[in-house]
Amino acid sequence: MIVRPVNSIKVTAEVRASELEAILTWLRDFNYQQNGEFMESLDRGQELPLFLSARDVHDEVIGGLQGSFLHQWLRIDVMAVLSNYRSMGVGCLLVTEAERMAVDRGCRSSYVDTMSYQAPDFYRRLGYREVGCLPNWDSHGHDKHFFMKDLS
Fold first, then answer.
1. Tens digit of pLDDT for each residue in 84-119?
2. Which of 8, 117, 145, 149 could form a disulfide with 128 if both were Cys (CB 3.0 to 4.6 A apart)?
């Protein structure tokens, strides 16, 4: 392979499918070299999906949680409660059950991200600690907060 000086390299938004595949292969090869055990676990499909629903006395869905388990982590992707049932403990029940299931599967930690107008205080009350924040993430003045919790 010929390596050219940086000042002779052109950057373009035009990428062919075969070029994209090559780029992804380079990244995947690097990741395997640096963390092969983790990459192999992804190939083996060790990530397990999680879906929970909360239902009222009429068996109507009033809340839900979507996430996954991977290695020793619970990831919460979506947690939402029907507006009439907010602040009544439904979200707490959903997250607590997800955490219980995570511990049963050997998970030691949980993580979630949420917007400043969504539920940062909710997760703080459940014992999550903020580990990062992207200010003005949506370019409309709202921050994205990242939380984690030790489950052990």
1. 999 999 999 999 999 999 999 999 999 999 999 999
2. 149
- Statement to judge: residues 81 and 142 lie in one domain: yes
How far apart CA 70 and CA 50 sit, in angstroms, is: 11
Phi, psi (degrees; rounded to nearest 5) at 141? 90, 5
CA atoms within 13 A on the CB side of 120: 13
3-state secondary structure of 14: coil
Calpha distance 106→91 (Å, rounded) = 23
CA angle 25, 27, 29 (to 5 degrees): 65
- Eight-state DSSP code of residue 71: T
Residues recorded for the chain: 152
CA 152 – CA 149 distance, rounded (Å): 9
Full-model pTM: 0.81
Q: Tell whether 85 and 21 lie within a shared domain.
A: no
Does a structural domain hold residue 104?
yes
Q: What is the mean pLDDT of residues 77-86?
A: 96
Q: What is the model's pLDDT at position 10?
A: 82
Q: What is the mean pLDDT of residues 52-63?
A: 97
* Sheet bearing 109-115, strands edge to edge: 48-55, 61-70, 73-81, 109-115, 144-150, 129-134
